[in-house]
Specification:
Strand content: 15-25%
Number of helices: 9
Strand order of the largest sheet: 2-3-1-4-5
GO molecular function, one term: GTP binding
CATH architecture of the largest domain: 3-Layer(aba) Sandwich
CATH superfamily of the largest domain: P-loop containing nucleotide triphosphate hydrolases
InterPro entries: P-loop_NTPase (IPR027417), RapZ-like (IPR005337), RapZ-like_N (IPR053930), RapZ_C (IPR053931)
Largest sheet: 5 strands, parallel
Pfam families: PapZ_C, RapZ-like_N
Protein name: UPF0042 nucleotide-binding protein
Keywords: ATP-binding, GTP-binding, Nucleotide-binding
Number of strands: 9
């Protein structure tokens, strides 16, 4: 029996996750009052494996009923049943953007500022997040990537470190990404922009990749960067960090940063952590100011 409690910040993707779990054969219940969880769990565990995968969404919509969650979970443990908590998270900037795009109001600030409701909700849910088995930050995840994460954890049973690494290439002339934890300026690397045959290309194309990655500066930089990340990533995981966003910036975000971001993605892939790469400015014009 797998009994999963799905919770987290409003707008972080709980509705999407419940759809994925239904596709994976879970029996899903949305917004069950927490006080009813022990009885519901008892019924499920006595079903003789007819209901062997259960997912419940519990969130701020329950209002004051949410205070019953911890006593209910303690009752489940005393009854000899096991459960997991999946907590979904996202940055303030991403949540505000999602709310504005959907034209919805936050449940804790229906007539006030979105940010006030988001901050209040974070405070209320902090104790639940601290008890979560899995924390997924959906800020930079596409729907496909989120589905892969859910499949990895609840279907394939792969180990989950809790750290999702997002690598973002960008152009400084378009501004730095707001949510980066680490930013590396690679404008010191020889620029293919000044080679006429490469000016209109991008770092995805082999000619540019070879030019950028085979320079002495890049070879030394990548060695030092990988050494640093080898040290940092396990310590971030130990500290409980759920997402690491690495920005790689050059002037326009088309050549050097793209090639290096892809190379970093390849070097980090294949470990237990999930790795995502995004090229924010690759399609923008390559004119220099």
């Amino acid at each position: 029996m797998r009994f999963v409690i799905i919770t987290g910040i409003s707008g972080a993707g709980k509705s999407q996750v419940i759809k994925y779990l239904e596709d994976f054969g879970f029996f899903c219940v949305d917004n069950l009052p927490p006080a009813l969880i022990p009885k519901f769990a008892e019924i499920c565990f006595q079903s003789n494996d007819k209901m062997d995968r259960i997912a419940l969404v519990i969130d701020i919509r329950g209002g004051e009923l949410l205070r019953d969650l911890f006593p209910a979970l303690d009752d489940i443990k005393r009854g000899g049943f096991s459960y997991e908590i999946l907590f979904l998270e996202a940055s303030d900037e991403v949540l505000i953007k999602r709310y504005k795009e959907s034209r919805r109001s936050h449940p804790l600030s229906p007539e006030g500022r979105l940010i006030n409701g988001i901050r209040q909700e974070r405070g209320i849910l902090k104790p639940i997040k601290e008890r979560a088995n899995h924390i997924i930050d959906t800020s930079n995840l596409s729907t496909r990537q989120l589905k892969e994460e859910i499949s990895n954890i609840f279907v394939e049973g792969k180990s989950f470190s809790g750290l999702i690494i997002s690598i973002i290439s960008f152009g400084f002339k378009y501004g730095m990404p707001m949510d980066c934890d680490l930013v590396f300026d690679v404008r010191f690397i020889p620029n293919p922009y000044y080679i006429p045959s490469m000016k209109s290309l991008t770092g995805k194309q082999q000619t540019v990749r070879d030019y950028v990655l085979n320079s002495n500066e890049t070879i030394e930089f990548m060695g030092k960067l990988n050494d640093m990340l080898e040290f940092l990533i396990p310590n971030y995981i130990k500290e409980g960090k759920s997402q690491l966003v690495i920005g790689i910036g050059c002037t326009g975000g088309r050549h050097r940063s793209v090639a290096i971001a892809d190379e970093l993605y390849k070097s980090l892939l294949g470990r237990e952590n999930s790795v995502i790469v995004e090229h924010r400015d690759i399609e923008k014009d390559n004119r220099r100011h």
